[in-house]
Amino acid sequence: MTSTFDRGLDLLDAVLAAEVGATGYPGNAQLAERLGLDQAQISRMLKDLGALGLVERDGQGRGWRVGPGYFALAAAAGDTGLPQAARPLLRGLVSRWHEPAWLSVRSRAAALTVEAQPSHWSSSVAAAPGAVTPVWCTGPGRALLLDHSEQRLAELLDGVEFVGGGPLAVRDVLELAARNANDRAAGVVVADREFEHDVVDFSAPVRDASGAITAALSIAVPRFRLGGRSAEIAQSVVEAAHALEVRASTRAGRTAARPAH
Question: Where does the HTH iclR-type domain start and stop, copy by copy (predicted)?
Answer without folding.
Answer: 2-68
